[in-house]
Amino acid sequence: MPVLGFVVALPGEARTLSQQRLDFEATHALPGGHWIGVSGAGPERAHRAGRKLLDQNVDALISWGCAGALKEDLQPGHLVIPECILSANHEPLVPDRSWHQAFLDTIPTHLTHHTGTLLESRSVIKTADEKSRLQSATGALAIDMESAAIARLAKAENIPFLVIRSIADDALMNVPEAINQSLNPRGDVRMGALLLGLLRRPQDLPGLIQLGRSFALALTTLRAVRDAQNTHFSLKGR
Description:
By secondary structure, the chain is an alpha/beta fold. The protein has helices at residues 11-14, 43-54, 97-104, 128-138, 147-157, 177-182, 191-200, 205-229, and strands at 4-8, 27-29, 35-38, 60-69, 79-80, 84-86, 92-93, 113-114, 117-120, 142-144, 161-169. It has a single domain (4-229), classed as 3-Layer(aba) Sandwich (Rossmann fold). The protein is built from eight helices and eleven strands.
């Protein structure tokens, strides 16, 4: 069976695939002979994690984790399995078509999923206005910071890739300023900075609670996908 490499930005997302403690910038074995790399946020970190997985002789790459909605009909917990990833410089990157279609056929019927275009961002998109502008300009359904980097690496290595993302914030959600000021470059929330931010901006607390609930819905969906695949994620259709 082909060996798959999962690139995941954050440890919280990685726990939907593995119960072991997973650290940034390390690779870990998964059930079924597959591998996971926890990259941190952003395309450069995702590329480095992907390269480490290639050193484990994986046969294909999967970008796994959360995304932000650009279209208003996408809600937290909805799946995005894009048929095209649009890079920041407008290069279209297309997943393996047969694998993409075969994976769609395995999605549990109770999960709402979308195909279409996923847009690359090189920074955190913080406001509903930014999301609306990007959606109007590109027609993309959702956005993330890592998938295009994985797609570019897979294309360069001539191996298949797939993107599996769950919506963690809807198109109308503004990221609370307390969160923005507490994030470090790899995507960690510095708790001291977050608490200080909430002391200064207590009005951010409802938005923080909403974001936490939305993230939890996204992770629940990813676990459901994992369970439906029975950890195999085989390259069906190839």
